[in-house]
């Protein structure tokens, strides 16, 4: 069967994965209001194409934190890729390197960061950090990723506690047991002082901790999970280099705004002082263009990457990225945009639907 769009990959992945694995990947908080609104919010936005423009050449390239990528479509940090494919994050990293886009590697990856980077040594890698209560551990992690050539540190801020994922509660215990039994990190990992894959971040982490973290690293720090102008303004005040507007894919606090809706508020608040990105609900190239028109520098993909991995491993991830890039290319041409720089707020309007 031909897989022509991200929805095709989702349907095929669900057939291939166990119910426990699928529930973990698709897990949503409470009633799934935010999970569903992440998708529905894009449908409330309409495009305003401009015609009679020379679109014989379309350029999807852009830069993030000074690094060029082939398309404004990157990979969000998601946990335990080996649930979907044996080589897990190593396959994901290889696909990202071939696509020349950024991959944010999760703190809760199935493999060590050394293994993942070795699989794709030429890739653009950022690292997702859940700040731990023990600052010696945070320092060790930062030093380790700097030595491996990571280009940014992504601090996830919206998970001081785990969201109320009812579906996961019905099946996650078996999954957690399997993960622990597999010991997904390398044998030497337990000696490094790093937390176990299922350890939780600090519940006391706050804005006052950021200067300490900044003193530990030369890397730009990106905050993932910002949804309000107040927190966006605080990020600028604290010399943060970027924001990923995100509601954790609707997995944390339910009934918060869809990411694409929160994006406008955050972009207005930072007023061009730092780069803003977003994840949550992107399923088509049209969605990518809408996010860029509202001020996102690029988008990050979570669940669709796992779908691609489950279907075809590295090739599946690359196909998901290629499909989205090709759809964006087509949408740009049909909207009269020859480059990412030409995508502006004038290209969209909000529907009453």
From TrEMBL:
<feature type="binding site">
    <location>
        <position position="156"/>
    </location>
    <ligand>
        <name>FMN</name>
    </ligand>
</feature>
<comment type="similarity">
    <text>Belongs to the FMN-dependent alpha-hydroxy acid dehydrogenase family.</text>
</comment>
<keyword id="KW-0560">Oxidoreductase</keyword>
<feature type="binding site">
    <location>
        <position position="251"/>
    </location>
    <ligand>
        <name>glyoxylate</name>
    </ligand>
</feature>
<keyword id="KW-0576">Peroxisome</keyword>
<feature type="binding site">
    <location>
        <position position="130"/>
    </location>
    <ligand>
        <name>FMN</name>
    </ligand>
</feature>
<keyword id="KW-0288">FMN</keyword>
<keyword id="KW-0285">Flavoprotein</keyword>
<feature type="binding site">
    <location>
        <position position="106"/>
    </location>
    <ligand>
        <name>FMN</name>
    </ligand>
</feature>
<feature type="binding site">
    <location>
        <position position="246"/>
    </location>
    <ligand>
        <name>FMN</name>
    </ligand>
</feature>
<dbReference type="InterPro" id="IPR000262">
    <property type="entry name" value="FMN-dep_DH"/>
</dbReference>
<feature type="binding site">
    <location>
        <begin position="279"/>
        <end position="283"/>
    </location>
    <ligand>
        <name>FMN</name>
    </ligand>
</feature>
<dbReference type="InterPro" id="IPR012133">
    <property type="entry name" value="Alpha-hydoxy_acid_DH_FMN"/>
</dbReference>
<dbReference type="InterPro" id="IPR008259">
    <property type="entry name" value="FMN_hydac_DH_AS"/>
</dbReference>
<feature type="binding site">
    <location>
        <position position="224"/>
    </location>
    <ligand>
        <name>FMN</name>
    </ligand>
</feature>
<feature type="binding site">
    <location>
        <position position="165"/>
    </location>
    <ligand>
        <name>glyoxylate</name>
    </ligand>
</feature>
<comment type="subunit">
    <text>Homotetramer.</text>
</comment>
<dbReference type="InterPro" id="IPR037396">
    <property type="entry name" value="FMN_HAD"/>
</dbReference>
<feature type="active site" description="Proton acceptor">
    <location>
        <position position="248"/>
    </location>
</feature>
<dbReference type="GO" id="GO:0003973">
    <property type="term" value="F:(S)-2-hydroxy-acid oxidase activity"/>
</dbReference>
<feature type="binding site">
    <location>
        <position position="248"/>
    </location>
    <ligand>
        <name>glyoxylate</name>
    </ligand>
</feature>
<feature type="domain" description="FMN hydroxy acid dehydrogenase">
    <location>
        <begin position="1"/>
        <end position="353"/>
    </location>
</feature>
<feature type="binding site">
    <location>
        <position position="128"/>
    </location>
    <ligand>
        <name>FMN</name>
    </ligand>
</feature>
<protein>
    <recommendedName>
        <fullName>(S)-2-hydroxy-acid oxidase</fullName>
        <ecNumber>1.1.3.15</ecNumber>
    </recommendedName>
</protein>
<dbReference type="InterPro" id="IPR013785">
    <property type="entry name" value="Aldolase_TIM"/>
</dbReference>
<feature type="binding site">
    <location>
        <begin position="77"/>
        <end position="79"/>
    </location>
    <ligand>
        <name>FMN</name>
    </ligand>
</feature>
<dbReference type="GO" id="GO:0010181">
    <property type="term" value="F:FMN binding"/>
</dbReference>
<feature type="binding site">
    <location>
        <begin position="302"/>
        <end position="303"/>
    </location>
    <ligand>
        <name>FMN</name>
    </ligand>
</feature>
<dbReference type="GO" id="GO:0005777">
    <property type="term" value="C:peroxisome"/>
</dbReference>
<dbReference type="Pfam" id="PF01070">
    <property type="entry name" value="FMN_dh"/>
</dbReference>
């Amino acid at each position: 069967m031909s897989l022509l769009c991200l929805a095709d990959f989702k349907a095929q992945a669900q057939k291939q994965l166990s119910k426990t694995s699928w529930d973990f990947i698709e897990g949503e908080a409470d009633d799934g209001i935010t999970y569903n609104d992440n998708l529905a919010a894009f449908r409330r936005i309409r495009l305003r194409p401009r015609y009679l423009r020379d679109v014989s050449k379309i350029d999807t390239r852009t830069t993030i934190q000074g690094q060029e990528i082939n398309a404004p479509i990157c990979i969000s940090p998601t946990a335990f890729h080996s649930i979907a494919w044996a080589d897990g994050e190593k396959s994901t990293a290889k696909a990202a390197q071939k696509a020349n886009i950024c991959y944010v590697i999760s703190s809760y990856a199935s493999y060590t960061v050394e293994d993942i980077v070795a699989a794709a040594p030429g890739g653009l890698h950022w690292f997702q950090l859940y700040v731990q209560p023990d600052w010696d551990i945070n320092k060790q992690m930062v030093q380790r990723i700097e030595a491996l050539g990571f280009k940014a540190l992504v601090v996830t801020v919206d998970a001081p506690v785990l969201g109320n994922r009812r579906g996961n509660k019905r099946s996650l215990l078996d999954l957690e047991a399997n993960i622990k039994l597999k010991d997904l990190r390398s044998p030497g990992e337990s000696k490094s002082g790093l937390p176990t894959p299922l350890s939780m971040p600090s519940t006391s982490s706050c804005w006052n901790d950021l200067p300490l973290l900044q003193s530990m690293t030369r890397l730009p720090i990106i905050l993932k999970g910002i949804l309000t102008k107040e927190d966006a303004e605080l990020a600028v005040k604290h010399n943060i280099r970027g924001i990923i507007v995100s509601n954790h894919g609707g997995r944390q606090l339910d009934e918060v705004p869809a990411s694409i809706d929160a994006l406008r508020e955050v972009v207005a608040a930072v007023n061009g002082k730092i780069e803003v990105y977003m994840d949550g609900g992107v399923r088509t190239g049209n969605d990518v263009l809408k996010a860029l028109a509202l001020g996102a520098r690029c988008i990050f993909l979570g669940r669709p990457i796992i779908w691609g991995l489950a279907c075809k491993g590295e090739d599946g991830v690359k196909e998901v990225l290629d499909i989205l890039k090709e759809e964006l290319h087509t949408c740009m041409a049909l909207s009269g945009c020859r480059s990412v720089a030409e995508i502006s707020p004038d290209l969209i309007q909000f529907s009453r639907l």
